[in-house]
Amino acid sequence: MIFRSMVLCSSFSVLIVTLLPQLAFADERVFEFTYELHATEFPPGQQVDIYLPLASDQPGQRVLNSEITASVNGQTRQESVYGNDYYHLHRSASSDGAVSATLRFTVARDTVTANPMPLSDHERARFTGPNSLVPVNHEILDPILGEIRAQRTDDSPAATARAIYDWVVDNVEYKKVGTGWGNGDTFWACSERYGNCTDFHALFVSLARTEGIPA
Hints:
Structural class: alpha+beta
Number of helices: 5
């Protein structure tokens, strides 16, 4: 199984989540996500390209409805490595003014159980190895992993992943102050203990992969 961490985020956006009393299958809950973008103060005479993540069907989630409105032309696309959908907004160099967009999704969410799925050797290597700012088996992680191992209910992958999640949420603050945050940097997250979603993701992935959990 690959443990995935997903958050819609932007330096200039608002995400509103509402629980809706709509029809869903047993054990499902239905939510409406409203993602608003208002971007200003671009360099004059330069084209602008903005990429926004889109909700998609996946284990534990069904997209019931989606709606996108924007002040500039946009296209729905899919990146080739992981198959994630995104919306590409483009403003030409001859244009000026703000770029705005509103993305609304209605999704049904269900509990996802930790039933391992077979991975190919290539997938396992990708999801357990390090990346440039996401180290694996690095000494900077040792003190954190010591606390996580002491807190988990058992040493199963599911219990370990849950303990990693709880530790990150309890010990890293979501804020954007100064410079250095927002690069998906495990070293930054370990030393500064704050950042945005990419820093949270990087730390979670480093810790999970060090414990042998594909992430």
